[in-house]
Design a protein that fits this description.
Blueprint lengths: L10 E4 L9 H12 L5 H9 L6 H7 L4 H15 L18 H15 L9 H10 L4 E4 L4 H7 L4 H4 L4 E3 L14 H10 L6 E5 L2 H10 L2 E4 L15 E2 L27
Helix pairs in contact: 1-5, 4-5, 5-7
Length: about 260
């Protein structure tokens, strides 16, 4: 724990995807399906055998980014590794890739449908409910657009009912996406506290950097495949939400005491 991480906390801000809701695998599938036949059949078959997930080398680079930032990266990756047509290239029977806007819309439409059955990240409901019982103001700061958040919350009002402030990536008050600090500064403003009085939960490195640059205390709860050494902008790195202990920040909550099976 960094020495600066022991300040007293007055509010908590959560990232959404991969932190509260386990959307990442669904997001991968939504992305690949949005490409359609632009991905050659042999590459699509290989992806199917691998569970329709994005390769980790590109997935780890795009976590936490807004669609207008990560979609061009995936298209370029597809051109280099999947056989997607390059600009001006023509192959009989193979369509060109969708534009950034087309892929974004297709991804979002697919994900909205898939997210009707999305599960929470382990411990998310308990953590949010216990913080709410303590009277701690809560917010979400997510790179997702508002329409997508509306679909993701349908099954999880037990979480969202406690979080009155939700700042999305398409909010007019958020000029720059993560890793810029804008979204966390705006969430703190809506909560009526200073960013330095906020505790942030994030899974992505760009999100951790965003919270850090805003002046928040940052807890990283990364995908287990991530190299923990890349989380230099986080004050604390936890294996999951069940390992959270708020004592250091004046929060009377030890998540391990509510776990059905004590965390390792």
């Amino acid at each position: 724990m960094n020495s600066d991480s022991t300040r007293i906390i007055k509010a908590v801000i959560f990232d959404l995807d991969g932190t509260l809701l386990d959307t990442e695998a669904l997001s991968d599938r939504a992305t690949l399906e949005a490409f359609g036949d632009a991905i050659p059949l042999d590459a699509r078959e290989k992806m199917r055998r691998n569970g329709n997930v994005l390769p980790w080398e590109i997935k780890s680079e795009i976590l936490g980014l807004r669609g207008d930032e990560w979609i061009p990266m995936v298209i370029e990756y597809g051109r280099e590794h999947w056989g997607i047509l390059k600009e001006g290239e023509e192959v009989s029977g193979q369509p060109p890739p969708p534009s950034v806007d087309e892929l974004w819309q297709g991804w979002e439409t697919n994900l909205n449908e898939f997210c009707k059955t999305v599960e929470e990240c382990s411990g998310a409901t308990v953590l949010v409910q216990k913080l709410a019982e303590l009277g701690i103001p809560l917010a979400i700061a997510t790179s997702s657009r508002a329409a997508a958040v509306a679909q993701k919350r349908l099954k999880h009002e037990n979480i969202f009912q406690h979080i009155p402030v939700i700042v999305t990536g398409d909010s007019p008050t958020v000029r720059n996406g993560k890793p810029a600090p804008d979204i966390y500064i705006e969430a703190a403003r809506q909560l009526g506290v200073s960013p330095s009085e906020c505790l942030v939960f994030e899974d992505a490195t760009v999100g951790c950097e965003s919270g850090n640059r805003a002046g928040c205390t940052v807890i990283a709860v990364p995908d287990p495949r991530m190299n923990k050494d890349v989380y230099a902008s986080a004050d604390v790195v936890l294996p999951d939400l069940w390992h959270f202990d708020g004592e250091a920040w004046g929060i009377s909550l030890k998540m391990a005491s509510f776990a059905k099976k004590p965390p390792n």
